[in-house]
Design brief:
Elements (H helix, E strand, L loop, with lengths): L2 H21 L3 H24 L5 H24 L5 H23 L10 H23 L5 H30 L1
Helix pairs in contact: 1-2, 1-3, 2-5, 3-4, 3-5, 4-6, 5-6
Protein name: CDP-diacylglycerol--glycerol-3-phosphate 3-phosphatidyltransferase
Pathway: Lipid metabolism; Phospholipid metabolism; phosphatidylglycerol biosynthesis; phosphatidylglycerol from CDP-diacylglycerol: step 1/2
Membrane topology: Multi-pass membrane protein
Length: about 180
C-alpha cells in the first residue's frame, strides 16, 4: 500500500461525509471537505508520479474515487435543490454510459482501455469548479448571477462532448 493509495482511500472515505454535510445543509463543512478532497487528488497524483509510487491499484482506485466524489456531489446537490436536476442527470448519465461500455466490452471479451482525453480533463475541471462554486455559494452567500447559467451550460456541453468522444472511441474499438 503506497502513500498515494492511502490518500485516495481517505478521499473515498470523505465522500459519504460530504454527502451527509450537503444533506444536512452544512454548507461550509461540505465545501471545506470538498476542497480537501480535491487537494488530496492533486497531492496523491503528484506523489505517485514524482516519487515513482504508481501502482495498478492506484490506477483503478484514483479515477473511481474521483467519480464517486463527483457523481455523489451532483446527485446530493440536486436532491437538496442547490443545482437543477437536469444537470445532475447529464453528469451521472455520462459516467454510467462509460461504465456500461467498459463492462460490456469485458463481457464481450474485447476489453477497452479508457485513456483520459483532453475534453474529459476539461469536463472534470468544469464539473469540479461548478460543484465548488455551488457549495461555496451556499456556504458563503456567493452569487454568480448570470454566470451560473453559463457555467451550467459549459458543464453540460463538456459532459456531452466527453461522452460523445468516449462513445466514439468505444464504437471504433468494438467494431475493429
Amino acid at each position: 500500500m503506497t502513500i498515494p493509495n492511502l490518500i485516495t482511500i481517505a478521499r473515498l472515505i470523505l465522500v459519504p461525509i460530504v454527502i451527509v454535510m450537503i444533506m444536512q445543509q452544512r454548507w461550509a463543512a461540505a465545501f471545506i471537505l470538498f476542497v480537501v478532497a480535491g487537494i488530496s487528488d492533486a497531492v496523491d497524483g503528484f506523489i505517485a508520479r514524482h516519487f515513482n509510487m504508481q501502482s495498478e491499484f492506484g490506477a483503478y482506485i484514483d479515477p473511481l474515487a474521483d467519480k464517486a466524489l463527483l457523481v455523489s456531489i451532483y446527485i446530493s446537490l440536486a436532491v437538496v435543490g442547490a443545482i437543477p436536476s437536469w444537470l445532475a442527470i447529464v453528469v451521472v448519465s455520462r459516467d454510467a454510459m462509460i461504465v456500461a461500455a467498459v463492462l460490456l466490452s469485458w463481457v464481450m471479451d474485447r476489453p477497452v482501455t479508457i485513456k483520459p482525453l483532453l475534453v474529459s480533463k476539461l469536463n472534470t475541471l468544469a464539473q469540479l469548479a461548478f460543484a465548488a462554486f455551488a457549495l461555496a455559494g451556499n456556504a458563503y452567500g456567493i452569487e454568480l448571477g448570470g454566470l451560473e447559467d453559463i457555467a451550467m451550460l459549459v458543464v453540460a456541453a463538456l459532459t456531452v462532448a466527453s461522452a460523445g468522444a468516449y462513445l466514439g472511441g468505444w464504437l471504433r474499438h468494438m467494431s475493429s
